[in-house]
């Protein structure tokens, strides 16, 4: 007899924490944003939100017998085996399933994460045999790392490299194997238990700071909803099913629209101006803001980026990258952000007027 497994708490039933939910949905639409790190004290629904997000992700079609869940219609995202079979004219077996959620324990070893090579089999049989790890299981899925600040720095480096490159490479004793590893990366941490090194913090596309709710009404809502869920999980989930379905459709529609969203030179100039004015080192921030802004535009149903899209993206992608003194907390100056965006809006208007003037001269 199978043990009873309670249904996952609905994402749409979470109370408050709008920035947390926004960052998660943006990454669900576009994993190229680079993942999200959620920083907050214990008991602030970090893990609940991440697990709930997995249930909003759409069904995916995979090659049924592939350990990497390869997409059957995207040659450039296939593993070498599936690509070879397809090019040889083989009909690949297909399967439709939910997007996979994989949780990485703090105690995980490197071999558990990246996979390992069976050297004994290679020596005896003369053939390489790869034992896939968690990065193989999570391809095209959601990888959740709780207490990422307690994970070995070396493993965090591997995770972030794989997330950025979309490929996992394992090299042992002169043997090298690579496979696709494209996934949504979500890490959570309690700052009271230690910080991530700045170099690792910078590699997360977005960072969200959350805390306990300060509004009495919201805290009462949390209590009531949790008690209702504990009393009858199935009925509670059913009550929120319409909201969940609506969110799933929003994410799917935004994913479809995303390739059509254009980034103009004016958008790039506005983002570059922001990074310079706010004292941000490097260029990761610029790329993260633009990727997030175009994703926000897709969620809004638009194919062009507005300055409001850039504002939302900057609020999520900039604070953890700004220069600060040791042990000092960084807060994004909203007034300064508004001033820079207003300046960018004026530059954009001036550029549009000059373009319109040149077009009129050509017509004349």
Automatic annotation (TrEMBL):
Protein's name according to its UniProt entry: Mg-protoporphyrin IX chelatase
Residue span of region Disordered: 341-364
Claim: Nucleotide-binding is one of the keywords in the record: yes
SMART domains to which the protein is assigned, alphabetical: AAA
UniProt keyword list: ATP-binding, Nucleotide-binding
Protein origin, superkingdom: Bacteria
Residues annotated as domain AAA+ ATPase: 32-214
Gene from which this protein is expressed: bchI_1
CDD domains attached to this UniProt entry: AAA (cd00009)
The keyword Nucleotide-binding appears for this protein: yes
Family affiliation: Belongs to the Mg-chelatase subunits D/I family.
Biased composition (Basic and acidic residues): 345-364
